Amino acid sequence: MEQHFERKPVGKKLYEKLKAQMEHDLGQLRVESLECCIHFVSTFTFAAVKILKDKVRVDFSLARQLAHPRVSRAVKMSSHRYLYFVEITKEEDIDQELMEWIREARDKKKKHVISNE
After folding, report:
1. Tell me, what's the pLDDT at 1?
2. CATH of the domain at 95
3. Sheet (strand 71-78) strand order
4. What is the DSSP string of 39-67?
5. Strand, helix or coil at 39?
6. pTM of the model as a whole
7. Which domain holds residue 78?
8. Cα distance between residue 50 and residue 78, in whole Å
9. What DSSP character marks residue 69?
10. What is the per-residue pLDDT for 113?
11. Which of 60, 78, 93, 111 could crosslink 88 through cysteines, CB 3.0-4.6 Å?
C-alpha cells in the first residue's frame, strides 16, 4: 500500500480523507492495493483511486450519464454503463455530492440483482 504514497504527501492526505469519508458515509468496505491503484470493494469493486503528487483521481461507474463540470473524463463502457473520473485537489472536493455518486456506484449492483428476481 505504501508504494502509492511515496513522495506524494498531498495525495496521501487527500486519500486518507476520502477513505475516512467513504467509511463514514458508506459503512464497512474493503480496500485492495493493486500495482496501478487502490480499489474500494463491497461485494465488487465500486471505486478506484489513483494517488498523484498533488491530487487523487477517483473513478467509478454509473448506469446513467452524468454531465457535470467536476467530471474530468467520461467513458461510455456499454449502453447502460459509464465510467467517470473525478479529480480531488483539496479536502473540500470530498463532499456529499461526490459521496452520493460513489454510493450510487456501490449500490448499482444491488439494484441490478433486485431487478432480476
Report:
1. 84
2. 3.30.1460
3. 30-33, 38-41, 45-51, 56-62, 81-88, 71-78
4. EEESSSEEEEEEE-SS-EEEEEEESS---
5. strand
6. 0.86
7. 2-115
8. 23
9. T
10. 39
11. 93
Q: Is 2 helix (H, G, I), strand (E, B) or coil?
A: helix
| Grid cell digits, residue 7 | 513522495
The C-alpha cell 465500486 sits at 46
Scan for cell 450510487, then name that residue.
104
Domains in the chain, number: 1
Q: Which three cell numbers stand for residue 41?
A: 470493494
Q: What is the pLDDT, as a whole number, of residue 99?
A: 97
What whole-number distance in Å separates Cα of residue 90 and Cα of residue 52? 13
pLDDT at 69: 96
Q: Which cell is 44 given?
A: 465488487
N residues, the chain: 117
